[in-house]
Every structure is written in structure tokens, then in C-alpha cells.
Design brief:
By secondary structure, the chain is mainly alpha-helical. The protein folds into two domains: about 190 residues, MFS general substrate transporter like domains (Growth Hormone, Chain: A, Up-down Bundle), CATH 1.20.1250; about 210 residues, Growth Hormone, Chain: A (Up-down Bundle), CATH 1.20.1250.20. Helices cover about 80% and strands about 0% of the residues. The chain contains 16 helices and two strands. The chain has a two-stranded antiparallel ribbon with strand order 1-2. About 0% of the residues have low confidence.
Amino acid sequence: MPKERHHWKTRFFTIWTGQQFSLIGSALVQFALVWWLTKTTGSATVLATATLVAIIPQVLIGPFAGPLIDRFSRRKVMIIADGGIALASAALAYLFFAGIAQVWHIYVIMIIRAIGGGFHWPAMTASTTLMVPDKHLTRVAGLNQTMQGATNIVAPPLGAILLSILPMYGILGIDVFTAALAIGPLFFVPIPQPAIAEGEEEMPYFEQIRAGFHYVWRWKGLLFVIGMAMVINFAVQPAFSLLPLLVKKHFSAGALQLGWLESAFGIGVVLGGLALSIWGGFRRRIFTSLVGIVGMGIGILVVGFLPSSALLIALGPLFLVGIMNPLANGPLQSLIQSTVSPEMQGRVFTLLGSLVTAMSPLSLAMAGPIADWLGIQFWYVTGGVIMIAIGVIALFIPKVIHIEDEHAALMEDASPRSTASD
């Protein structure tokens, strides 16, 4: 075990705690900006555009950010990314304070925040690999899922309360403060930096990008998993985005009932994440993910078949979807963290994020017309069936089941995971 992994909890959780404060601040700002756009414009087109400007930059920059994350200090990448996001929030706070904020200002800030996130998440995820012992990676992933679920539960009502007592620039100021809490520990806690792979010292930038694609292409098990994630995201994203319409049109209910369903899902995510952080999952992490995928599929499918009088029953399957969500996502992340060569993780995680995220705008563009034609429940039935089918079929694909063994065979001649703190 590298020297840096002794006393890893103190080092890692010092950084991790600051990052969680920053995520809460970002969630509050996201809620406040979306509400301001809704109240100010009342335009669905404006809200859809805001969603796109928050997604597309991460899709486009991912493959180009990867080599930079692998080559340069990941600690400094996170400092710059968090700092850039904080400066953008501070600039927008000034515009609101001066009373001159406009919709296009918010678009620009959202783009800057998305670019910062496109660098920050893969840098933090890749750094976790070399700070946390392999046997604890799945538990840490479960803890991350727990915090994400808790943030999704807490941020909307807390954001609403803050909007009633603070001006917009005050809420943006909270984001700047929480970003400072995330940046501060990075100046004092060293983060291990992987050795640059042999032959890459003098490799041109675009050759490094190609090397990342080649790495994934050779590893067929990972290629299958990325394809599975892309299909699942394409099929299931509309179901989540159309939940308000399902509540209103199918169940003939209102905002209160929508809140119940979203809370059931959020509580499930928290409990599922806690269970994963304690249990750690099956020895073969892919089995835990496939159980989670099938479980989510069952929950979504049940919602699709519920009659209009069964709103309260829908709480159960959405709670199940929430519990299974961390089981599906957490082990996959830790599997990639523990098996992908450290010097390639920036490229692999950014490529994975770009490909999977790219499915969201494509499926959302189709969601409305198809729901109008075939009904909102079509997306729940289709998404559930596809998730169940993928989870079951993957059990019979040797490259998927033995994904870790395949990587070990491919990398048997690779150099060891030596690191040096930056």
C-alpha cells in the first residue's frame, strides 16, 4: 500500500467534507436560478435552454478535459475548477446586486459552471482512487450516493426558505462561501498523483485523447458497460423528467403529491446509499450493479402500469427505485476506479461522462412528442423493460461478468500504480 494511504480517512474526508458543502451550495444556487427564470419569464423554452446549457458543455469538453486531468496536478485542477465556479457565482451576485441581471447572464454563468464541473468531477473521482484503499471504494461510492440523495431532498425546501428571506445575490454568496470551504483543504492536504504512463511524456495532446479511446476500445467489458449506461440513460431519463406530468395528467394530482413521490425516491436513495456504504456490495461489484439495474427497472415498470387511482401505491415502487439507484451506480464507479490504470482515469471518466450525458438531450427531445402520441406511461413501461432486460442479459455476457479479470489480463504487463503527492 502506498505510504499516502496510511491514515487515509483523515486526508480523504477532510477534502470530501469540503466538497459536500460545495455541492449543497451549488444545489441551492441551481434551485434559485431555475426558480428565478420560472418567475421572471414563465417560458418553457427558457427553462429548456437552461437545461441544455447546463448539459451540453460537459458533453463537448469531456474528451478534451481527460488528458489535462491525467497530465496535470489533479489537486490544482480541482482548485481552478472550484475557483472558476466561485468567481462566476460572485460575478452573477454582483449583477443581481446592481439590479442588471438578465437571462443571458444566467446562461453564461451556467455554461461556466458546467465547464468547471466537467473538470472537477472526474478529477475528484480519479483522485479518490489513489487516496482510498480499494476495499473501501464501494463504501465511499455508497456514501457519495447517500449525500447526493440527501442534497436532493434538502436543497429544494431550503432553497425556497432562503429565497423568502434573502435576495438572489445573498444565495449566490452562500455558493461562494461553500466553494471556499471546498478549496481551502486542497491547499493543505496532498493528493497522490499517478506516474505518467511510459511513452506519454512526449505524446502530443490529441494523441493522448486517442490513447484514451483506444484504452476503452481494447477493454470490451468496459465498452459493454458504457453502452449499457448509454441505453439506460436514453430510455429512463424521460420517465424522470415527465414525472410532474404523470402526476398531473395521469393521477390528476398536484404539487403536494409530486413532492411525496420525489421524497419517496430521495429517501430511498439515502437509505440505499447508506446500505451500500455499510455492506460494500458483492465481491464481484458488477453483480451488485446488475441487481440495482434490475431493481430500478422493476420499480419504474410498476409505476408505468399503475391505474390513475393508485397514486399512493406509486410511493412504493419509487422508493424501490431510489434504494436501487446507489446499488446500480456506486459499484460501477468503484469498479472503474479500482481497475482503470490511474494515469488513464481522467480520460476514462470524462469519456464515460460525455457519452452517457449525451443521451439526455437526445432522449428529452423525443420525450414530449412520443408521450403526446403514446401516453406518458409509455416511457415508464419502456424504460423499465429495457433496464430489466439489460440487467438480465448482462449476466450472460462473459466480458461483462468478468470485466475485472479481463482488465487484469490486458494490464498484466503494465507498470505498478506508483504515486507521488503533488
